[in-house]
Design brief:
Strand order of the largest sheet: 1-5-4-2-3
CATH superfamily of the largest domain: Rhodanese-like domain
Structural class: alpha/beta
Number of strands: 5
Helix content: 40-55%
Strand content: 5-15%
Largest sheet: 5 strands, parallel
Length: 163
Amino acid sequence: MREGWRVLRQALVLGVLGVLVAAIIHHPLLKRLARGEFRDTLVQAAEYPGLRLITTAEGEDLWRGGEAVFVDARRSPAYDQGHVPAARSAPVAEAEKTLPQALVDLRRGQLVVVYCEGGDCQSSLLLAKRLHDEGFQDIRVMTGGFDEWTKAGLPVEKGHGQE
């Protein structure tokens, strides 16, 4: 019995030390979180009911099925260098106050897939929120972005394409 308590105490000490080390290592990130810097990058399901995060594989299925309009939230030079075939260019900076010109003809019930670079990029999520605020009801954010699209060896179109 005494041995059991000793093992439990050691496990608790190791757990507490692990939490302390993690807090020290991630201190700058925790400070940013406390300041609310990540508030715009979070999605509340109740606030954005028509918005879903999807994988690259799910995005590919929607693209191959032709059932969705793809929207590239990256800046125009990145779009011109390569994008999902037939994707529309709508840099998130253009969507701050109004719907980007490339999207004004879309039906609000149209399935829309938004992407950006991938990784830490938040442009697609910000644009998706803007689309939701404009009345779009079925929005998917391809979380892997264009980086995962190209890594998967999927087709890429260059130049202006759809604008």
